[in-house]
Write a structure and sequence with these properties.
CATH class of the largest domain: Alpha Beta
Number of strands: 17
Shape: rod-shaped
Number of domains: 4
Number of helices: 15
Strand order of the largest sheet: 2-1-5-4-3
Structural class: alpha+beta
Oligomer: single chain
Bound molecules: adenosine-5'-diphosphate
Radius of gyration: 66 Å
Length: 587
């Protein structure tokens, strides 16, 4: 549709109205002037006719020549055509023509009318004078003869006046038309300029949704209420956008704070919403997921299969799925149908990382297997010796030997059980945080530990040295830390070389206080440095078991370090020194 500017619309509306108005006015004024002029002329003609009649009355009309002469004279003086007609219509005098040359006038309308009503008038084109004329006739009784005095006047002046007036009106019309054009432009500008302004502002608002410059208050009532309404609308839109944004942010915040991965998908399995954790769990591309079909972006086939099954209404909607791409983590993936008024609209998938639980479960299973294995070995040998002891064939020395072996295996079992109980106690204290640490002199703990192992050390010809500042304090449960250091000295004796020194060193280093237990001996391969702290782990199973260990000593040390908010590690030093270090927070 072709759109015109407002000012042209106004102009096109006003212009025909103005043209019609002016034409109507011209017609009206034309006829009013004509009527007025006719009336005036008629009155004037009546006066003249009456005057002529009075003059004639006082004159004796004895000859036709005298009549004609008088009429001519009167006509000239009154600047009018005067005709005298007898009752038969015969012209007996005329100011402009010779009566002989004139027709019978009895049928002239004004004559007919005058005979009837005393006065008669008419307007018509005079063939004699070749112009428009007004005629007025009255009855004039003269010497008992009834004559008719007719006067007439040209109407040419009237037409000139009207023509002149029409010209003026047309000029005025043109001027008014031009004025209307200007006024249309002025008024349209008055309306369109603020409207353009409003339009621009509204567009800016739509593009930027920024309300910092609201629309001003215009002088025109309608424009002002329009700008106010638009301002109100903008504020309302702004409010709603903020509410929507806040709700979206809240939702995203909740989703992102959740410790589970969450994905919402529609019926076509297109991703509608997904939180960061889910993106991480499924190892998705940071930018291409929203709006994508799940099977295009999620590589794990089992997850996709579960989604399809849930959509199809499968009973089982929970599975443990290992996602290899994500460091082989195990997830519990749960799918639920999303329904609106009973109709499925999509699905919701929740992923929980159960890798740690799985690992703990494995550790527990391994632990049970290890404990069983560790206890099974001595029990099997005890059973074997008891069987032999039942035999009659054995002699006394064999009996004593078997009984000693049974005792040794029973002691070993006892040791294992003691260590297990010890470990379990420390672990539960660690979980409950029931251990109270106190500011203690480190050297005291080292000396107590050294005392615990003096006999054992002298059996192996080991010398235990202590290098520690007298005034070095640590926060510790002295009994537990003494036990840990003793365990490490015991290992130093067990696995170290005979006749070598075992050094206990205590010192501050950066933010830590470190306790080193150094012994000379066969060093542990770096690949085993972490593993030796696992329960029942031994570097050389049969040798180390022979050495009398339970495989739990370093685990106990590790947990004691934990309850002191510290840690334990081992390093291979120069000159064949194996170093175990307990590092604790510095006081
Ligand atoms: P165990 O009670 O059998 O000694 P530990 O947990 O104390 O068990 O030690 C685990 C393993 O670490 C031992 O079997 C041994 O192989 C190794 N180990 C521990 N301490 C030392 C050390 N000072 N030198 C060499 N190997 C050691």
């Amino acid at each position: 549709m072709k759109r015109r500017p407002l000012f042209l619309q106004l102009f096109y509306t006003f212009m025909p109205m103005m043209v019609i108005g002016i034409v109507a006015l011209i017609f009206f004024i034309n006829s009013a002037i004509r009527d007025f002029y006719y009336l005036q002329t008629k009155d004037e003609l009546l006066d003249r006719a009456s005057l002529v009649s009075i003059i004639l009355e006082q004159t004796t009309l004895n000859s036709t020549t005298a009549v004609q002469k008088l009429i001519k004279k009167l006509g000239m003086e009154s600047n009018m055509r005067i005709t005298l007609i007898d009752s038969n219509g015969l012209v007996i005098g005329d100011s402009e023509q010779e009566p002989i040359n004139m027709d019978n006038h009895s049928s002239r309308p004004e004559v007919v009318e005058a005979k009837k009503d005393y006065v008669g008038s008419s307007q018509r084109f005079s063939k004699t004078l070749q112009e428009n004329m007004m005629y007025l006739a009255i009855i004039h009784d003269h010497d008992k003869k009834s004559l008719i005095v007719r006067v007439s006047k040209s109407l040419a002046g009237l037409n000139d006046t009207i023509y002149d007036l029409q010209k003026r009106f047309i000029l005025i019309g043109l001027f008014v038309g031009f004025l209307i054009l200007l006024l249309s432009y002025y008024f349209s500008q008055k309306v369109t300029v603020p409207l353009q302004h409003i339009r621009k502002k509204t567009e800016t608002f739509v593009n930027t949704l920024n309300l910092s410059n609201p629309l001003p208050n215009y002088k025109t009532k309608e424009l002002s209420s329009l700008s106010q309404s638009l301002n109100k609308m903008a504020i309302e839109i702004d409010k709603r956008i903020r509410i929507i944004e806040r709700e979206r942010n809240d939702r995203e915040f909740i989703l992102s704070s959740m410790q589970a991965g969450i994905i919402a998908l529609n019926k076509k399995l297109k991703i509608l919403s997904i939180n960061k954790i889910a993106i991480d769990y499924l190892d998705l591309n940071e930018n291409s997921h929203l709006g994508y079909r799940a099977k295009k972006v999620i590589k794990n086939k089992r997850v996709i299969k579960l989604m399809k099954n849930v959509l199809a209404g499968a009973d089982v909607n929970q599975e443990e799925i290992i996602i290899k791409k994500n460091k082989r983590r195990t997830f519990l993936v749960n799918g639920t149908q999303l329904k609106k008024q009973g109709v499925i609209t999509g699905i919701l998938v929740v992923l929980n990382d159960i890798t740690l639980q799985k690992q703990l479960e494995n550790i527990r299973q391994d632990f049970v297997a290890n404990v069983s294995h560790e206890l099974k070995t001595p029990i099997t040998s005890i059973l074997g010796y008891v069987e032999l002891l039942k035999e009659d064939m054995i002699n006394d020395s064999q009996r004593t030997d078997f009984l000693n072996r049974v005792l040794k295996q029973a002691n070993r079992m006892n040791l294992i059980i003691d260590d297990l109980l010890r470990l379990s106690k420390i672990e539960s204290q660690e979980e409950d945080s029931t251990i109270e640490l106190q500011k203690t002199l480190l050297i005291q703990i080292l000396e107590d530990a050294k005392d615990d192992l003096l006999d054992s050390a002298s059996n192996h010809q080991n010398k235990i040295n202590i290098y520690c500042d007298e005034g070095l304090f640590i926060n510790a449960d002295s009994q537990l830390l003494r036990e840990a250091v003793s365990n490490l000295i015991e290992n130093g004796i067990k696995y170290g070389h005979k006749g070598k020194e075992i050094n206990l060193i205590g010192k501050n280093r950066n933010e830590k206080t470190e306790i080193h237990i150094d012994n000379h001996g066969d060093q542990i391969a770096p690949s085993q440095h972490k593993k030796i702290f696992q329960r029942f782990y031994r570097v050389d199973k049969s040798r180390d078991r022979e050495a009398g260990g339970t495989g739990l000593g370093l685990s106990i040390v590790k947990h004691i370090a934990f309850v002191h908010n510290g840690e334990v590690s081992t390093t291979n030093m120069e000159n064949g020194v194996t170093r175990f270090t307990i590092s604790l927070p510095r006081v």
